């Protein structure tokens, strides 16, 4: 017994000592910002493409601010963090960062000065990125104009404002290191996995997190999560899509930010989709290939086109637009752009609402967000813009409209919590 408690005390003391030791990280000496001319044009161009996939500018740019100068607030359950200035300004940006310092931040989540970074910066995914891609990203960032912009101070609650606790978090949840290809899979699958799990950081939004903010794994991987009031839908067998996703329709969506069989990429997915449209097609094919392995197998004769025709006939064939208040609002406010395909094409893709994933989702959030906010920043301008109805429809009208779309278009029981949701999202 005595031996046991001695061993326990020794063990705990050892653990505390290990944590303290692990939580100390050396700074990396500052450098003079490298000359942009020291990077090749190819490296810079490739780095720009990689930065688009990684969404660096989406997070590291505040509204109305210059690209990559940071300062964007990132609300978390633990308080608010701000993104940093990634331009090569010596004092407020990463101008003094050597490649070794940049690589350590991406691979290990540690700043040049030796401070632990929080996983709101998706280093748990970026750790998978290979050396060559990191070099090209560095070349791109270091060749941007240096712009001074200080990062606002974080507003995190105690104890989360103690960056050293991230040593414990990393110990528990962080699987560090570049992507390891699976030899039993072919090259395309491995390429897709590298992009989705690495720079693409798709699961950062599409996987639910535990109470300490770490992504869940196993069946919870890609099981869907909430981002900025939007729902990032499940990308696995939990998908509620009206028409089952396939590798081919995934590819269509990744290529265009839109699929005829599912709808448009709006909200936080729109900038992701915009970044994807800049990637080489072989890479998008590889990503679709990899993502398809999370989906259930479809019968051999499954045809998304056949299912689409069925759904559209069912919906538009039996529509009674004027028999309910929701129906009247739809024909007045929406029908001009979202009709059955027979009328004039006003603007963009005119998604068929009969197949829109937003009507079939477990929660009304994405439908309500689109109605309230419209789509002002589509993934590609050719998709068209949808006006916001925040000011022209009141809560009651939006509730009636959402109920109508859910019942008459999707043929599903109305969502139970519409009143609460509309009030909250507005
Ligand atoms: C989801 C939002 C998000 C994305 C996408 C993102 N970052 Fe960040 N990044 C952050 C946040 C938040 C911080 C600050 C973290 C902290 O304070 O602990 C940060 C910090 C950093 C830092 C540390 C800077 C410093 O001064 O300490 C580097 C380097 C960095 N990001 C590079 C990148 C690169 C390169 C990309 C694109 C490949 C990228 N980030 C994409 C959110 C993001
Ligand atoms: C910043 C958060 C975020 C990131 C990162 C992100 N997504 Fe999304 N994604 C969303 C949201 C939110 C939606 C819902 C948007 C909508 O329906 O208009 C979505 C929708 C989708 C859909 C459509 C799902 C459906 O059933 O309608 C697919 C497919 C998808 N994302 C794939 C990806 C892939 C692949 C990546 C990585 C390259 C990725 N996403 C990265 C937030 C994100
Ligand atoms: C002026 C034309 C216009 C009007 C009016 C309009 N929309 Fe849209 N809507 C669009 C366009 C264009 C898109 C696709 C935008 C994109 O992908 O960039 C869209 C997209 C949508 C989507 C997302 C589709 C999907 O499958 O992901 C929904 C839902 C939607 N609209 C609902 C409505 C509702 C409800 C109304 C009426 C309150 C309405 N729209 C009125 C043009 C319009």
Describe the secondary-structure layout:
Layout: H1 2-22, H2 41-54, H3 56-59, E1 73-76, E2 79-82, H4 99-108, H5 123-126, H6 131-142, E3 155-156, H7 166-173, H8 187-197, H9 202-206, E4 225-227, E5 230-232, H10 247-256, E6 258-259, E7 263-264, H11 269-276, H12 281-292, H13 304-317, H14 325-334, H15 357-360, H16 365-373, H17 395-409, H18 418-425
Antiparallel strand pairs: 1-2, 2-3, 4-5, 6-7
Helix pairs in contact: 2-6, 2-11, 4-6, 8-12, 10-12, 14-17, 17-18
One heme C binds next to β7, α14 and α16.
Describe the fold and architecture.
With 426 residues, this protein is mainly α. It folds into 3 domains: 21-150 and 158-173; 187-292, no CATH class; 304-425, Cytochrome Bc1 Complex, Chain D, domain 2 (Orthogonal Bundle), CATH 1.10.760.10. Helix content is 42%, strand content 5%. The protein is built from 18 helices and 7 strands. The protein has a 3-stranded antiparallel beta sheet with strand order 1-2-3, with no helix packed on it. Helix 10 crosses helix 12. The protein is globular and about 70 Å long. The model has no long low-confidence stretch (mean pLDDT 92).
